[in-house]
Amino acid sequence: MSDPSMKLYMVPLAPNPTKVMLYIAERAAAGAELPVEQIVVNTLKGRHRQPEHLARNPFGTLPVLELDDGSHLIESLAIVEFLEERFPDGALREADVERRARSRDLERVVDLRVAGPMARYVHAAKSPLGLPPDHAAAAAAEESLEGPLDYLEALLDDGRALLTGERVAIADCTMQAALQFLRFVDADLLGDRPNLRAWDARYRERQAAQAVLKW
Ligand SMILES: N[C@@H](CCC(=O)N[C@@H](CS)C(=O)NCC(=O)O)C(=O)O
Q1: Is 57 in the pocket of ligand 1 (CB under 6 A)?
Q2: Mutate to test the pocket of ligand 1, among 8, 16, 80 (most ligand atoms within 8 A of CB)
Q3: CA angle (159, 164, 167) in 5-degree steps
Q4: What's the whole-model pTM score?
Q5: According to the CATH classification, is domain 97-206 in 1.20.1050.10?
Q6: 212 CA → ligand 1 middle, Å
Q7: What is the mean pLDDT of residues 89-113?
Q8: For the segment 178-194, what is each residue's pLDDT rounded down to a tens digit?
Q9: What residues does CATH 1.20.1050.10 cover in the chain?
Q10: What is the CATH code of the structural domain delimited by 6-86?
């Protein structure tokens, strides 16, 4: 494979970098070692706010993918979709246009309606970055999760193994990255949703999950 100089700037545990790390690990488990070097930017030490990282991404967030020409992609889904298209052999994307749209649709629902509130909950309840606790914000984030989690629970009612069906999809990576962040602060917001709990246990057995997840 080419592009030996691509670099993923990331930090383990943080949900958006973990989404990309899980994706890369899923590709590896399926036989495609993507030529992406992974480099930790220590957010606990504030390295993401220093000029070196701001030169990569003026918003100071992670992940960032540095391409071989030195340019950067700074959004996790754009990074994953770039890697899908750049290395299409064995990519996760569906061949069928409607299935591909549904898969992307679900990833957006998980990211915007589930992973976002879960991250807000973590930062409001017990921020790893040391933000002050905000109990009202934590409660609001928790409440906003009810509908989206019910939606996912209902999807899994048909017995599918993974969020979009039998094949792993980016939505699975996004969801699991969010759940790891909750586990890190000993939080569990899945409630009485046996399908989601079974999916969580199943996903965490996967080779990619075992390789990437720390909590
Ligand atoms: N929409 C962006 C969000 C990136 C983001 O907010 N990353 C978090 C880690 S999960 C971050 O870098 N937070 C540090 C900060 O905002 O100071 C993406 O999907 O990549």
Answers
A1: no
A2: 16
A3: 90
A4: 0.97
A5: yes
A6: 18
A7: 97
A8: 999 999 999 999 999 99
A9: 97-206
A10: 3.40.30.10
